[in-house]
Amino acid sequence: MTLSLTLGALVSLICGLDRVAILQMMVSRPIVAAPLTALLLGEPLVGLQIGVMVELLWLARLPVGAAVPPDDTQVAIASSVLVIALGQSLDASGTELLLLCLFVAIPLGKVGQYFDRYAREYNVRLVKQVSSALSRGSFLAAEGQHLRGLISFSLSSLGTYAVIILGGWSIIPLLWPYVQQPLSYSSSWMQLAFPLVGITVILGTINVSRAITLFCAAFCMSFLLMWLV
Amino acid sequence: MAISWRTRLHIWFRLLLLQASWNFETLQGIGFFYALFPGLRKLYGKEKLPEVSLKYIGYFNTHVYFAPLVAGAVLRLEEDRASGTVVPEVEIDDFKEMVAAPYAAIGDAFFWGGLRPLVAGVALFFAVKGILWAPLIFVLLYNIVPIWIRTVFFSHGYRHGLKSVEFIQRHKLPDLAIHTKEAAVVILGGLSAFMVFSQLTQHQLPSWLGMLTLIPMVMLGLVARKGISTLLLVIITVSAIFLIGLFWADVVQLMVF
Fold first, then answer.
1. A51 with B135: CB under 8 angstroms?
2. Is residue B215 included in any domain, yes or no?
3. Nearest CA of chain A to the CA of B115: how many Å?
4. pLDDT digits (tens, 9 = 90+) for B50-61
5. Helices H, strands E: what count in chain B?
6. Is B228 within the bounds of a domain?
7. Do the chains contact at A217 and B202, CB–CB below 8 Å?
8. Is the pTM of this model over 0.90?
9. 3-state secondary structure of B252
10. N or C: which end of chain B has fewer CB within 10 A?
């Protein structure tokens, strides 16, 4: 249990930094972060399922200028940890548990936006510190202040991860006995709904003329091809 | 004095940490200073270096993958200014201000709005099939263009200075962004069809039902255009499916007994 949470925290930290502060190689995307977490915990397919469900949800929310999109990275990582760890302690598995974990993690993930905002507000202090270090001619200190920003972003990622894990850990075991059966009637359709909702949001917000026409044409053509073949 | 390739490489690596101190006041300002500092240190003596450095920690914001292009060009301008042999046509601060916003707009449209959904769509085809390599496919496919742009544009910026702007114009990136977005829409259309078709096949339902999926999808797309949050759309859709599932289960039970 502790090992699972620690491994999850480690992935949360690395992917959280990739999201804004360093590299931007997109290992922070849910389709990468969730399977990576689940692979480390020994159940990569769980992570892949979560990645498929979360990847497209907020893809249309662009990190443009000072805009802070919801932290889908931590939602994906924490959900993977919750599904695997709670699955062992509740002796449960399957799409129903996965869905319940996501239903709890997604609203809690909104907290990540506040942490992310706070990290960026906190980093404003660094501007003054860099300025005074440069005025003193202390260049090494000025460079160090820049790297101190990484601490804010690390804490923000870990904070979001902790909130989702703690929230999920206290809510999911209480809900599970009541929702397991009702969820089983429609779990596979709900699983399909997540990426489809994400795609509709992308369609609604993408700046392409006749996006809906193009989408419908591609959908129909692909569907007919699969039907015929 | 020309900046050596070692220093330029050092700067290139530091640009990977451009946003480490991202903040609401100067955005990437400190990061831009941090990245360029090894070059500035080579060009200016201890007396002038604090004054020059202070100029760089102000507001700066561009797309993170285009920052190397700006950094390369600024480095060349600094080199010209420090040597005193060539007088730059525009002030370095003005140049930064002039190019940062347009580059940010082009980068946001191309990378975040086009390439990312396109590659995500491709990777999800593999993921839906349960292929565990899907994340690796996503990372590899996505990073080809950013790594190329970060490397080639940085060297181009350094070689051409002010004229690096023409390089962007020649590549017609805004047009490419539109085409990438169109390709993303097509891929996502195919992906939706694939997921719906697989689901129907799995439940042994008639395939033509899948065409009906377009109706709620288009409706939700139009609702999303009005600015309704994704979270709300998820709650509405999932609740509707949950209630239909419960109703369906009751109907089936009634029919059985």
1. yes
2. no
3. 11
4. 999 999 999 999
5. 11, 0
6. no
7. no
8. yes
9. helix
10. C
